[in-house]
């Protein structure tokens, strides 16, 4: 049996306290997923800080980089579930840093289009490269077949969740 982790110690305390309303297997799954998620998030935030980005700015760059490279501020706001004011603040900062630029919308002379700059693409690609190495480091303990099996099991859990719990 592998060494115990901090979740095993918590589960032991729950069992010792005689709390029989908690299924220890379910509690272990939920707490371990939460702990892993927390560690991966902290590592990602560290990568973003190293690249001078916030998570919110990263989200905007990601939408542009993984899309056509252009979008309207309204589409970005809707995708990221932000108010127009919050999106304007993010775009101002990204534009100030040269990561995006605002251009006249060719289809609507009253509108603007946000475009990812070469500098923005390079910043996103660089951060992704570092983050991908860190994520591979997290998963290195598992063999490739174990990684595939874990992905199958996590997908099964995720697909079983009601839509209202997915955001």
Sum up the structure in keywords.
167 residues, mainly alpha, 2 domains, 3-stranded antiparallel β-sheet, 3 strands, 10% strand, elongated
Strand content: 5-15%
Mean pLDDT: 92
Structural class by helix and strand composition: mainly alpha
| Helix and strand run | HHHEHHEEHH
Shape: elongated
Output the strand order for the largest sheet.
Answer: 1-3-2
Poorly predicted segments: none
The fold-level CATH name of the largest domain is Arc Repressor Mutant, subunit A
Tally of individual helices: 7
Q: From the alpha-carbon coordinates, what is the Rg to the nearest angstrom? A: 21 Å
**CATH C-level label of the largest domain:** Mainly Alpha
**How far do the termini sit from each other?**
35 Å
Q: What is the CATH superfamily classification of the largest domain?
A: Winged helix-like DNA-binding domain superfamily/Winged helix DNA-binding domain
CATH-level-2 architecture of the largest domain: Orthogonal Bundle
The biggest beta sheet reads: 3 strands, antiparallel
Total domain units: 2
Helicity level, as a percent range? 55-70%
User: How many strands in all?
Assistant: 3
Give an overview of the whole structure:
The protein is mainly alpha-helical and 167 residues long. The protein has two domains: 1-35, no CATH class; 51-161, Winged helix-like DNA-binding domain superfamily/Winged helix DNA-binding domain (Arc Repressor Mutant, subunit A, Orthogonal Bundle), CATH 1.10.10.10. It has seven helices and three strands; from the N terminus they run H-H-H-E-H-H-E-E-H-H. The protein has helices spanning 6-16, 24-50, 55-65, 73-80, 84-96, 118-139, 144-160; strands at residues 70-71, 100-105, 108-116. The protein has a three-stranded antiparallel sheet with strand order 1-3-2. Helix 1 runs antiparallel to helix 2. The protein is elongated. The protein starts with 5 loop residues before the first helix and ends in a 7-residue tail after the last helix. The model has no long low-confidence stretch (mean pLDDT 92).
């Amino acid at each position: 049996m592998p060494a115990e982790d901090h979740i095993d110690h918590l589960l032991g305390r729950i069992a010792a306290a005689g709390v029989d309303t908690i299924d220890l297997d379910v509690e272990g799954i939920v707490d371990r997923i939460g702990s892993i998620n927390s560690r991966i998030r902290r590592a990602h935030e560290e990568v973003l800080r190293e690249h001078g980005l916030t998570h919110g700015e990263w989200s905007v760059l990601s939408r542009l980089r993984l899309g056509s490279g252009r979008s309207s501020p309204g589409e970005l706001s809707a995708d990221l579930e932000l108010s127009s004011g919050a999106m304007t603040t993010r775009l101002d900062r990204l534009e100030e840093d040269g990561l995006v630029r605002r251009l006249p919308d060719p289809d609507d002379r009253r509108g603007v289009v946000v475009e990812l700059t070469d500098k923005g693409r390079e910043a996103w690609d660089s951060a992704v490269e570092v983050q991908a190495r860190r994520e591979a480091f997290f998963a290195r303990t598992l063999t490739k077949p174990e990684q595939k099996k874990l992905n199958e099991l996590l997908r099964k859990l995720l697909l079983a969740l009601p839509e209202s719990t997915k955001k």
